[in-house]
Amino acid sequence: MPEENVKLISRSSASGRIIAIGIVFAFLYWASSVVMTLLLAVLLAYLLDPFVGWFERLRIPRAIGALLVLLSMSAIFTGLGYLVLDRADEFAADWPRYGAVLRHATLVVNRRLAIFEKQVAELAPEEERARPAVRIEDSSPVRTLLLRGLGSLYSILLVVTFLPFLIFFMLAAKRRIWHATMELFPIGQRTDVKETLDEVSAMLRGYVVGNALVALILALGSWAFFWMINLDYPFLAGTVSGLLTMVPYLGAVLAWVPPFLIGMTKWNTFGPFLGVAAMLTLFHLLALNVLMPAIVGRRVHLNAVSITIALLFWGWLWGAIGLILAIPITATIKVICDHVEAWQPAGRWLGA
């Protein structure tokens, strides 16, 4: 084949790959609600599958076992939600006391910002100060906020409505889905495909269980710490603060918000705030450098650079749910790359 034809074919192949990648990303963006619902269902189905298998070993039909597992998990989360909401109701009833302190602090900050802006304006040239400020106002802010809120509400309703049904069907029809998936590949490749899927299953299950365990440890530790310092609503503050600590990178600061908000009514000096910030930062560092590598890291096998890039990309694409799914998606891609010879260099880079 002439060299010119080889170059033309290689260029066409590269262009086709770029176009295909662009189409995939466009689909992930525009169909984000559907894709996120499917991925969350797959993640939770992998987590709950061992419990359904346990019922199946007791000679309970798989469909009934899947239904029992879903009902049990729903009851557990409903009970936990009731405990949190019960404390939240008490906090809401006591909110006027905290709201007054918060409004006072906001007024102080706004006053100081106004003084600072005035001092900066005095430093500007006289012609700049004389020039009238140009304000661009949204012609329909209410409509904009309403449309944005409806879009978010639609995504939440889609997830809440379809997620239980998807999980149930995935658990109940696991064998048929598994057999149909195997038939998509040639007979000679089915052993490698089975090993890949088994490794993905173990990784996803270990990731979800590990993160849940770390979040529980952080919530209990924060609860105990807040109870020891005699903070109001220690269970509510500890639960919210422990969960916020799990947020990548920003969790060290977000975890301060609940105790700071509650402590504003009883702490008149900066000492208690600094102590709480130091302890919660220590919790975050322990979770990031000790608990996560020991409990989750051995399952994921991703380096810090690939994790950071994944969090940035999927968080930008899908928001908060993207941050939750970023590491499982990237770890699954790594497992697939490790089992495909042509993609193994990419897998080694993700785990280097």
Instruction: List the helices and strands in order.
Output: HHHHHHHHHHHHHHH
- Major beta sheet summary: none
Give the number of helices: 15
Q: Report Rg.
A: 26 Å
- The percent range for strand residues is under 5%
> What is the terminal-to-terminal distance?
39 Å
Overall outline: globular
If you average the pLDDT, what whole number results?
A: 78
Unreliable runs? 136-151
So what's the oligomer here?
single chain
Essential attributes:
352 residues; mainly alpha; 0% strand
Describe the structure.
- The protein has 352 residues and is mainly α.
- The chain has a domain at 8-94 and 147-184.
- The protein has helices at residues 3-30, 32-57, 62-93, 95-123, 126-130, 141-172, 174-182, 190-228, 234-245, 251-254, 257-263, 270-300, 304-318, 320-339, 344-350.
- The longest helix has 39 residues, at 190-228.
- The two termini are 39 Å apart.
- Mean pLDDT is 78; it is low at 136-151.
